[in-house]
Structures are given as C-alpha cells and as structure tokens.
User: Fold this.
Amino acid sequence: MILTLADVDPSHVAFTATGSGILSGQWVRGAQNVTWEVSDQGSGMRFERLRLDGGERYSIDWRGNCDLGAWGDSGEFARQFQPCPVGGPWGRAYALDTAGVPDGAHTVQVCSQDYGQAVGIGGSGGESCDERTVRTDNTAPGKPAALAIRSS
Assistant:
C-alpha cells in the first residue's frame, strides 16, 4: 500500500490597513507601520516573511510550535498530519524604517509558507504572497534658486 499525503490548502497572507500611507502608494519617509494577517487550515503555519525589494526585513519561523523531528541524512519530518499551528487569521505589525531606503518606488511583500509548502509535499512548494508598491521620499527639498528677501 502506498500512502500519499497532499496539502491542498496553502497558507494565506494579506496586507491589512491597505489605506495607510505606505500601503496605499503615498510618498512616505521614516518608520512606517506595515500590517498583515496570516492563516492556514492545511498542514499548519511554518514561516512568515516581510521583504523590501526582495531583501528579508522580518521573519517568523514557527518551528518551535511544530511537532517535528529529524533523522540525520533524511532531514526533518512531521510526527502528525498537521504538525504546525493551524487557524488564524493571526495579525502582525512591523515598523518598516524607510530612512535608509533610496527615494523612489519599491516593492514590499509579505509571504507565508505552511509546512506542506516549506517541504514541498505533493509538489506544493513555494509561498503565498501579497505585495504592494511603496514610495519613499527621504530627501528634503533643496534650497530655492535665486531666493531673495527684500524690504520696502
């Protein structure tokens, strides 16, 4: 008998407060609050990540909450069908400091992986992601040209 497991419900992630300055595409500077929610009803939540222009800024590894084991060369394995926490949505917030980010348009992305996605059960692999374009303007305007003060 061959038993094949499949996780047909990938994790879910979505930005919240999308009307806020940073997530609505307004020009912003300094620390900006980015919020999102994650959930999973399949094999359970394994990873969450926030990226700016592809570079990871924040992550949560749920491994400590998962019922996993490991065998030398075989690697990690699950001890039950839903080894990691299921449920949600779980709300998150991160203060993204744009002060060190060049002025212009950037991509902010939140991604999640359930256990099945993280280990590629049944070819599921990958991540569930949501992304927005953010615009930063950290440079003060230059002095006006030919500014003169006159008195009468």
